């Protein structure tokens, strides 16, 4: 099927508006189905997790990246994954003294391009999908992390800040459900 | 306003040029989550397609506004053929990077049109399980078309079928055909 000389599989890109609007349709549908922002946040996180455990395969296959030696290494990888999949370049900053916790600052975010949050949705974490993706992807490379939003420009904060914290190394990587 | 912080609203920013791109794989994974989510809430294939279509309609409605302002200088289509061509070319190009392959008029029914696409972008990574043979997740794209047509005051039903790739069957409401006949020649 693939025409020789056409764009290589690696650079398959699509218009970000399709992505943005589709994600928006998902979030608004979730809000209708659950009626409670906390449940929506949880659902988004779960979906993100599912995406994360699969996207890491794609990332490793395409970047042939080596094992991370420390969290700084990991942070850099996460940053490059955002660049690769969403075309944004978040800043890695605010390291904790122990170097086990950092922030990603998003000055632009295609996910929120056309988004305004009504006052009734102030507890909604619109981009909570990200937290799930990071958690899922890291888990597949034996890293347990947690992540959460500290600031959200949709809620009037000056920037969007996502915090990622190292929890522990997973020693035995058993597939889920086979203990 | 309950909060004291000043929010910049969407109207303070200039309209996006639509040149930003994201990875197709990322989209495919998101779409897969949407399909799974829908599937967990319904029990039959037609219901699943209806759900996907609802998602598509949300996208279509918003895309219409955006494209009318950005590509059409605020001018809306009022003729049936024009709006179909608008969907086939402008909408498909912006959303999926290329025009849809064909637009056809049914021989035996002047209410029905077909928009044909050899390979639908949303189906790129989807393999349909055997027991759901007639499921076509391009019901999502059918929803986009339906959203655009309904919002433009061309009430229609759009469904996706496996035929020459994916064929979207667009069935217009009687009123649309009558109105379009009146416009003829003007």
UniProtKB/TrEMBL annotation, chain A:
<dbReference type="GO" id="GO:0030008">
    <property type="term" value="C:TRAPP complex"/>
</dbReference>
<dbReference type="GO" id="GO:0005794">
    <property type="term" value="C:Golgi apparatus"/>
</dbReference>
<dbReference type="Pfam" id="PF04051">
    <property type="entry name" value="TRAPP"/>
</dbReference>
<dbReference type="GO" id="GO:0048193">
    <property type="term" value="P:Golgi vesicle transport"/>
</dbReference>
<keyword id="KW-0256">Endoplasmic reticulum</keyword>
<protein>
    <recommendedName>
        <fullName>Trafficking protein particle complex subunit</fullName>
    </recommendedName>
</protein>
<keyword id="KW-0931">ER-Golgi transport</keyword>
<dbReference type="InterPro" id="IPR007194">
    <property type="entry name" value="TRAPP_component"/>
</dbReference>
<dbReference type="GO" id="GO:0005783">
    <property type="term" value="C:endoplasmic reticulum"/>
</dbReference>
<dbReference type="InterPro" id="IPR024096">
    <property type="entry name" value="NO_sig/Golgi_transp_ligand-bd"/>
</dbReference>
<comment type="similarity">
    <text>Belongs to the TRAPP small subunits family. BET3 subfamily.</text>
</comment>
<dbReference type="InterPro" id="IPR016721">
    <property type="entry name" value="Bet3"/>
</dbReference>
<keyword id="KW-0333">Golgi apparatus</keyword>
<comment type="subunit">
    <text>Homodimer.</text>
</comment>
<comment type="function">
    <text>May play a role in vesicular transport from endoplasmic reticulum to Golgi.</text>
</comment>
<keyword id="KW-0813">Transport</keyword>
Automatic annotation (TrEMBL), chain B:
<keyword id="KW-0256">Endoplasmic reticulum</keyword>
<dbReference type="GO" id="GO:1990071">
    <property type="term" value="C:TRAPPII protein complex"/>
</dbReference>
<protein>
    <recommendedName>
        <fullName>Trafficking protein particle complex subunit 5</fullName>
    </recommendedName>
</protein>
<keyword id="KW-0333">Golgi apparatus</keyword>
<comment type="similarity">
    <text>Belongs to the TRAPP small subunits family. BET3 subfamily.</text>
</comment>
<dbReference type="GO" id="GO:0005783">
    <property type="term" value="C:endoplasmic reticulum"/>
</dbReference>
<dbReference type="GO" id="GO:0006888">
    <property type="term" value="P:endoplasmic reticulum to Golgi vesicle-mediated transport"/>
</dbReference>
<dbReference type="GO" id="GO:1990072">
    <property type="term" value="C:TRAPPIII protein complex"/>
</dbReference>
<dbReference type="GO" id="GO:1990070">
    <property type="term" value="C:TRAPPI protein complex"/>
</dbReference>
<dbReference type="InterPro" id="IPR016696">
    <property type="entry name" value="TRAPP-I_su5"/>
</dbReference>
<dbReference type="Pfam" id="PF04051">
    <property type="entry name" value="TRAPP"/>
</dbReference>
<comment type="subunit">
    <text>Part of the multisubunit TRAPP (transport protein particle) complex.</text>
</comment>
<comment type="function">
    <text>May play a role in vesicular transport from endoplasmic reticulum to Golgi.</text>
</comment>
<dbReference type="InterPro" id="IPR007194">
    <property type="entry name" value="TRAPP_component"/>
</dbReference>
<keyword id="KW-0931">ER-Golgi transport</keyword>
<dbReference type="InterPro" id="IPR024096">
    <property type="entry name" value="NO_sig/Golgi_transp_ligand-bd"/>
</dbReference>
<keyword id="KW-0813">Transport</keyword>
């Amino acid at each position: 099927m693939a025409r020789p000389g056409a764009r290589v599989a690696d650079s398959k890109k699509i218009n970000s508006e399709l992505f943005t609007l589709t994600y928006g349709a998902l979030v608004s549908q979730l809000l209708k189905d659950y009626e409670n922002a906390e449940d929506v946040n949880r659902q988004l996180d779960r979906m993100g997790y599912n995406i994360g455990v699969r996207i890491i395969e794609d990332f490793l296959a395409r970047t042939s990246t080596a094992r991370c030696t420390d969290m700084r290494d990991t942070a850099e990888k996460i940053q490059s994954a955002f660049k690769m999949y969403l075309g944004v370049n978040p800043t890695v900053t605010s390291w904790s003294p122990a170097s086990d916790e950092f922030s990603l600052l998003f000055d632009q975010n295609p996910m929120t391009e056309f988004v305004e949050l009504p006052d009734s949705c102030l507890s909604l974490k619109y981009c909570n999908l990200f937290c799930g993706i990071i958690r899922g992807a890291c888990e597949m490379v034996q890293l347990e992390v947690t992540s959460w939003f500290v600031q959200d420009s949709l809620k009037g904060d000056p920037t969007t800040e996502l915090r990622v914290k190292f929890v522990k190394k997973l020693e035995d990587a058993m597939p889920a459900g086979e203990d | 306003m309950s909060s004291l912080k000043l929010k910049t609203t969407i109207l303070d920013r200039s309209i996006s040029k639509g040149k930003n791109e994201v990875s197709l794989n990322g989209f495919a994974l998101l779409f897969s989550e949407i399909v799974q989510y829908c599937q967990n809430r319904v029990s039959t294939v037609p219901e699943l397609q209806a759900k996907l279509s609802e998602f598509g309609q949300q996208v279509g409605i918003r895309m219409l506004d955006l494209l009318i302002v950005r590509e059409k200088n605020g001018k809306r289509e009022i003729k049936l053929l024009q709006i179909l061509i608008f969907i086939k070319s402008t909408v498909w190009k912006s959303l999926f990077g290329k025009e849809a392959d064909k637009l056809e008029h049914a021989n035996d029914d002047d209410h029905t049109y077909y928009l044909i696409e050899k390979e639908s972008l949303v189906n790129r990574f989807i393999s349909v399980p055997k027991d759901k043979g007639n499921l076509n997740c391009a019901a999502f794209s059918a929803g986009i078309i339906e959203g655009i047509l309904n919002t433009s005051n061309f009430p229609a039903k759009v469904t996706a079928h496996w035929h020459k790739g994916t064929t979207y069957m667009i069935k217009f409401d009687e009123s649309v055909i009558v109105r379009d006949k009146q416009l003829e020649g003007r």
